[in-house]
Amino acid sequence: MRFFRNRLEGAEGAEPRDADAYVSLGMRVAGAWSWRIIVVAGVLALFCWIVATFSFLVIPLMVSVLIAALLSPAVDGLQRLKVPRVLAVAIMLLGLIAVVTSLMWVAVSQIRAGYSTLQEKAVASWEDLKQWLLESPLHVTDEDINRYLGDAAEALQSDIGTIFSSALSFGTSVGGFLTGVLLALFASIFVLYDGKGIWRWLVGILPLRARVATDKSARLGWATVGNFVRVQALVAAIDAVGIGLGMWILSFVVGEIPLIIPVAILVFLGSFIPVIGAVLTGALATVIVLVTVGFWPAVVMLGIVILVQQIESHVLQPIIMGSAVKIHPLAVVFAVSGGSIVSGLAGAVLAVPVVAFVNVFIKSLANGNWRRVPADGLPVIPSQKQSEQEQKPE
Questions:
Q1: What percent of the chain has pLDDT over 90?
Q2: Do the beta carbons of residue 321 and residue 274 sit within 8 Å?
Q3: Residues of 327-350 as b/e, b for ≥16 C-beta within 10 angstroms?
Q4: More exposed terminus of the chain, fewer Cβ within 10 Å: N or C?
């Protein structure tokens, strides 16, 4: 009996019955890490699937949150001046709509006014390029050029069905875009007017012990998102003024350059997509100068674009933004790429603010920075003893 008792109790010399005894410590640690990584990856995949599937709801909601982060200081300032909050929200939203509508109207009118000039100069530049090809050592003939153009036309005609279907989908997306704009404006009204009440309700769903830490960490993240949106708008305006002013000054030296104002507006809008937007809009400005004026002015324009972006990246953003919204450029690039894969252009715009919020939120929970956040405005959180007493039956 003692022999069997020793084997069952794992005495010295007895053969172990637990399978973990045969697994090394390193393998157990690797297994513990592996299943946790799988769970986190599964949660992230589920989140991305939900965003992609219900993007027609998620994107307007996130846009409304960004609008609230941008306008909430002004709304609070108007309220401190004894303006009713409803009226303050209406003033700021109508002002934002007026600014966006004005920018779009100016861009469209300038494009219509400068399109003929751009077309004439593009045709002249094509003739110059064609003449250079004919006289170059490449031995390109007029028949070769016509054949290449014919091949391009045939490729375009062969894909006409795809282009037509894309046009139809664009028409459908216009309706979805307008619906999303209305949803975003509708949600912005409530987020600006009663955002604190909505947040109290969300925090109240959490367990008691998690409410204070979650609330304070989220408030730090919210402040980061607000700083990011406002600073990004300022930096975008500086980029637009710098590149537009550079094109305008260059036009006095090399001749008329069309579409200066629309390019500046596109630079402003494109700068809200970090890294990628600035590159694309800067390339657009360079291409317009190349087509309308020539090669060397385009080189100068490219230098202006690079100079403005370098000043923005290495001087303005560190001074204005500081370390509060500091995200590694590699994380920004991957966030923008991942956001564009999940939700297209809107995902690329919204990805970096989401990453900034998550970064600050997780760091605050991990290092305990939330304890230094003042407790004013927190939802009423009863103590654990009070909660247990309330749950006891009478």
A1: 8
A2: no
A3: beeeebeebbebbbebbeebbbbb
A4: C
